[in-house]
Write a structure and sequence with these properties.
Elements: E1 5-10, H1 19-32, E2 37-41, E3 53-56, H2 70-78, E4 84-86, H3 90-100, E5 106-110, E6 122-128, E7 156-160, E8 175-188, E9 192-193, H4 196-200, E10 204-208, H5 213-222, E11 229-232, H6 243-255, E12 259-263, H7 264-270, E13 279-288
Length: 297
């Protein structure tokens, strides 16, 4: 275990900054270079948050992944060949992964900047390029979990989105890289690819339970796709089979909807509702503009 590098990916702001998409990009990039890595995720609001469990191996995804929380399940699905462990006890996850895979070189801890019980070899902090610090105040007045000075402990800063990087970050003398999202494709019920042009002629609704629903609207608008409604739910929303299904079906009937547009994360739960219309799942991927691993790796 002493030879395994622990890579922490986190943020100092509330809301979505892109930690999990960056984790996916990094894990894939390491795999392309022949580096043996694994991922630890808290499994937020999943059954194993308090009972650390391996949800995927190098060979397959275990049935436990379906109950591990939306982001942990998404990691297992998006990272074939890379083991994923769910559970908030990060030290236990590291132990489990190292016991199962003694040849591991790196373990990526998704959302772990504030988790100080485990020593990090590399600390990465993610910011949105657009208003990265909000109004500059700490919670609850603003979006900052910690003062900006906390990034003095970071080894690498990633900015997510278009636009210029604020000058205020330059004084910390950190290695800074910028990335963005791109749409990999849209898939009916997450299986069959559908052409964007086909969706433009359909009546569409959006359903989301993510931290930044506006970013999803922007992604869809950039594809020149129009929609009739957007049902917005809180981040990590579980989607009840009775109450939420009725609300969604009422909207579908009202607008004569033909497809529901949604994210991969939301579809991990929406697929259990048995909707009357198919979901068009938007698959996005994060990328660094340089398209190369930062030198620290």
């Amino acid at each position: 275990m002493a030879d395994v590098k622990i890579i922490s990916i986190g943020n100092i702001t509330a809301g979505g900054s892109g930690k999990t998409p960056f984790t996916i990009w990094l894990a894939k990039k390491l795999m392309q270079q022949g580096r043996k890595s694994a991922v630890s995720h808290r499994g937020y609001k999943g059954e194993y948050e308090n009972n650390n469990t391996l949800i995927s191996s190098r060979d397959k995804i275990f049935s436990a992944a379906k109950r591990a929380g939306d982001e942990a399940q998404l990691l297992a699905e998006k990272l074939p060949g890379i083991p994923v462990c769910a559970g908030k006890d990060r030290w236990r996850s590291i132990q489990m992964l190292c016991e199962a895979y003694p040849d591991l070189e790196m373990i990526i801890l998704d959302d772990s900047f504030q988790h100080l019980k485990v020593k990090h070899d590399i600390d990465i902090v993610i910011f949105k390029t657009a208003k990265p610090l909000g109004n500059g105040f700490l919670l609850p007045a603003g979006i900052l979990r910690e003062p900006l000075s906390a990034i003095k402990d970071a080894d690498l800063i990633i900015f997510n989105g278009e636009g210029d990087i604020p000058e205020t970050f330059q004084k910390y003398n950190k290695d800074i890289h910028q990335g963005n999202y791109r749409v990999e494709g849209i898939y009916v019920n997450n299986q069959i690819r559908i052409d964007v042009g086909e969706l433009k002629s359909r009546r569409l609704g959006i359903i989301s339970g993510i931290a930044d629903p506006h970013s999803l609207e922007t992604t869809i608008a950039n594809l020149d796709i129009e929609w009739q409604f957007h049902l917005q739910f809180p981040d990590h929303y579980p989607f009840s089979k009775s109450i939420d299904l009725k609300q969604i079906e009422n909207q579908i009937a009202m607008y004569e909807t033909e497809y529901i547009l949604t994210t991969e994360k939301d579809y991990t739960k929406l697929k259990h509702l048995t909707l009357s219309v198919p979901c068009a799942v938007i698959k996005i991927e994060f990328y660094l503009i340089s398209d190369e691993l930062p030198a620290i790796f």
